[in-house]
């Protein structure tokens, strides 16, 4: 049975999370600390029964609702201004928040350390889609670990990181010149934010087939707005309301899609 709680962090932020709990009779289970993507928040993992499968595989799963999403601290207007203007201070605060959160679970969560050959135990942060941008804010610049958080202690617990389906902008990459990729945020047929997110939800949950013999050319991929089948087609309006927050995404995700790529290009340059 999973539980839910709120991590109260030293920087004043509070992050809601659901937790499958420690694995019974195990002293070397691995804790997956999962940062969700855009619009669909951490409760999606709960609804998808991820927690119920964790213990059988010696995993503990913790699904965090990132800032602005249900149960977690909202971004202040000044923070959103930093984001909209592409200021690196936004990423710096985000990286510090991730360090505080990992330390919170070390101090409060009774999680095992990484074992001697780093094959079990420890914490593995998982970034899903735009959640990778949250993770990379810290892991691209570990100097953001704040005073009061021991880097040596983090090294004893952070075993690895997982980047699950990351968008190119999380790493400051540009798409190839002449690309014809579909972008729901720039869809000229969408006149309102509601229409943009409806397009995004259908597109991101569609089932597209990879072309036979695909050699990595992005323009050879299926560029339809949505496929004949998408996951969200099977959800009721109540289920959508429980796992999706387009208002939070509009406030704090859409500006990332516009500004994060330039931020991370500068960030990557500063760290080399």
UniProtKB/TrEMBL annotation:
Alphabetical list of SUPFAM superfamilies matching this protein: alpha/beta-Hydrolases
Domain of life (superkingdom): Eukaryota
Name of the protein this chain belongs to: AB hydrolase-1 domain-containing protein
Originating organism: Crucibulum laeve
């Amino acid at each position: 049975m999973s539980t839910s709680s709120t991590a109260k962090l030293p920087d004043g932020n509070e992050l809601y999370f659901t937790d499958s709990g420690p694995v019974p009779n195990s002293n070397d289970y691995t804790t997956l600390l999962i940062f969700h993507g855009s619009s669909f928040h951490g409760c999606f993992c709960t609804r998808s029964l991820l927690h119920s499968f964790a213990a059988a595989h010696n995993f503990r799963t913790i699904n965090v609702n990132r800032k602005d999403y249900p149960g977690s601290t909202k971004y202040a207007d000044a923070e959103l201004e930093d984001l909209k203007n592409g200021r690196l201070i936004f990423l710096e605060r985000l990286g510090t928040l991730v360090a505080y959160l990992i330390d919170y679970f070390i101090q409060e969560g009774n999680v095992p350390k990484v074992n001697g050959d780093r094959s079990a135990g420890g914490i593995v942060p998982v970034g899903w889609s735009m959640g990778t941008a949250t993770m990379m804010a810290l892991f691209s610049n570990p100097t953001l670990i704040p005073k009061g958080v021991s880097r040596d202690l983090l090294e004893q617990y952070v075993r690895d990181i997982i980047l699950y389906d990351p968008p190119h902008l999380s790493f400051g990459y540009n798409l190839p010149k002449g690309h014809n990729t579909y972008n729901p945020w720039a869809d000229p047929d969408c006149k309102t934010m509601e229409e943009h997110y409806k397009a995004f939800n259908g597109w991101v949950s569609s089932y597209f087939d990879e072309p036979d013999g695909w050699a990595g050319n992005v323009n050879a991929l299926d560029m339809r707005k949505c496929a004949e089948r998408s996951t969200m087609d099977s959800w009721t309006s109540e289920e959508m309301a429980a796992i999706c927050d387009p208002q939070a995404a509009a406030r704090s995700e859409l500006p990332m899609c516009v500004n994060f790529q330039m931020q991370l290009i500068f960030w990557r340059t500063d760290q080399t």
